[in-house]
Amino acid sequence: MTGKYDEKGNQVGVTVLSVPQMVVKDLRTDEKHKYKAVRFTIQVEGSKKEIIKEVRTEETFEPGLEIKIEELIKPGDILRVSGTSKGKGFAGVVKRYGFAGGPRTHGQSDRERAPGSSGSTTTPGRVLPGTRRAGHMGAVTASVKGLKVLDVDAGKKQFSVIGSVPGMGRNRGKLITIFKQK
């Protein structure tokens, strides 16, 4: 993230996103595949690796057409951005779910961040499924809605959105999915 000035002169926090080269590979049609979609090849910068992504849409594109950022995204557009959230490893219930933990006094030296009781008594005599417990936290697909496009730089193939997107700084080069909101 970085800071830029909006049209009113206020400084806002923005995330600068780069758009890789995207070329239409082929189309999925109702007649042949029972749905409509466009398949893109995405050229990963700095490597020979290509990624194929499929987007369901009613719009038609010609195979071999290169998608340009200035045709898709304009300043003022509202976007929903999906990506992989920051991974936090194995976390206890206090960090993962905001449990209060036990008392810090009255001889409870080993119960400060413990979850407490997690099951019932004789009936049902087990811990029910879905009980919140310690475990892996983060590194899941997350979406942020309502991000406004501040500016588009077609020369650098970049655009800025006001706010943050899922992930972290070390995720440079990772793909995120962008949807236009209406």
Layout of secondary structure:
Blueprint: E1 2-5, E2 11-18, E3 21-28, H1 30-33, E4 37-43, E5 50-56, E6 66-67, H2 69-72, E7 78-84, E8 87-91, H3 93-97, E9 135-138, E10 141-153, E11 158-162, E12 177-180
Antiparallel strand pairs: 1-2, 2-11, 3-4, 3-6, 4-5, 7-10, 7-12, 8-9, 10-11
Summarize the structure.
With 182 residues, this protein is mainly beta. The protein is 7% helix and 41% strand.
Q: Can you offer a commentary on this structure?
A:
This protein is mostly beta strands and 182 residues long. It has a domain at 2-30 and 37-87 and 137-180. It is built from three helices and twelve strands; from the N terminus they run E-E-E-H-E-E-E-H-E-E-H-E-E-E-E. The strands form three sheets. The chain has a six-stranded antiparallel β-sheet, with no helix packed on it. Strands 5-4-3-6 form a four-stranded antiparallel β-sheet. The chain has a two-stranded antiparallel sheet with strand order 8-9. It is extended. 7% of the residues are buried.
Helicity range: under 10%
The largest pleated sheet is described as: 6 strands, antiparallel
Poorly predicted sequence stretches spanning 5 or more consecutive residues: none
Number of helical elements: 3
Strand order of the largest sheet: 1-2-11-10-7-12
Say how many strands there are: 12
Distance between the termini: 25 Å
Average pLDDT: 90
Proportion of residues in β-strands? 35-45%
Broad shape: extended
Q: In angstroms, what is the radius of gyration? A: 23 Å
Following the backbone from N to C, one meets helices and strands in this order, namely EEEHEEEHEEHEEEE
Q: Which class best fits the helix and strand makeup?
A: mainly beta
